[in-house]
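Researcher: I'm preparing a figure for a lab meeting and need a structural model of a single chain. I don't have an experimental structure, so a prediction will have to do for now. The sequence is pasted below. Please return the structure as tokens so I can convert it later.
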Amino acid sequence: MTVQVDSRYDRFLNRSVAALLARGAQLLATTEPGYSEPPPWARGWDRLLLVNHPGSVTLYAFTTADPNRVDELGRRLDELAQGLAGKGSPGAGPIKLVAVAAFDGPLDDRTARSVTRLMPSQYLSVIRPSTWAVDLHANQIYSPGLRGKREGAEPIELALRPEGDTGDLYSLQRKHAQSSQAFYRLMTGRQPVVTYALIAVNVLLFFLLYENGGPDNTNAIQTFGALTPRLVEQGQWWRLFTTMFEHGGVAHIFLNMISLYILGSVAERWYGSVRYLGIYLGAGICGSLVAFAYAVFTGDLNDPIVGASGAIFGIAGALITVRFQASDAIPLSIRRQVSNQMIVLVVINLVFSYITPHVANSAHIGGLIGGSLLSFVFPLARELTETSP
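Model: Understood. Here is the structure written out token by token.
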């Protein structure tokens, strides 16, 4: 009687599949007996697994590879990417394709680098491909780009650990379930009450200003706390705070409150109400200080400056930095998307902010920098069990 002994690759493949299934992956194609024949574009790949997480869709494709036939691996990758592109993305964004090429023999650094540089022959808008080379002898993963933690590599790293460590699979499954629940709690359980309160205060003060002379009346806006540099020099430092609750017109407050509602609703849920308020007020004061310093530098000491824009730019800055913070509760893919969107939004607003009277771009830049820095002092929700503000 002959006893079949699984190869090192078979063991790695089975453990990788188990780890991915523990994260909620779906098996799309396999070469195992008893399953339907994979589509032509998936042939040559032993397993295809789809992981659909909030904000990202990742497809893992596993195969063995020969270090002397890297071109053949590139051809298979091209066919796989073309086939996936023809099916379209099952999610809102592009599919992140991770081709995992396992080498059961010695793999030198030069060959590994050539494998990680493999890309489809043409650009495909619905596919974001990357190729990982796995040295099964050295238990090492090579991936494109700089060294460091790879997004989505945890199941592959787990498969390379010593066998018999099945408790890690249960831990991974638990962590995945907790992560999904934590993100759901953040987005549905926390209500942006501070954002609503800030909008209400700004609108109320604008109505009071409007009833007492209006934003076109210099004496009125100074009475209600506008940042007039000459008055600040005379000791009225409280204007650095009150200016962020005053606005120079209907269009000014309307655009600011819409921005505050959109950005604040996300930021308050992610950071928690107390830390969010700390970032908002701190960034607003930073914006006021920079605007005051710039006015002193230019000698423009009489023109009043008003608006919540500095604080709102601070919230945008805090959303830009989320990609650089650690959080098990908020998926990195979502944090990167929000960060990219905020960068575009900030650039557009800096360009168009010159058209509003009594508004200083220096305050915007100061608030942006202040909010970015304060986001590390008041970090976003990190732990899976965190529910407090």
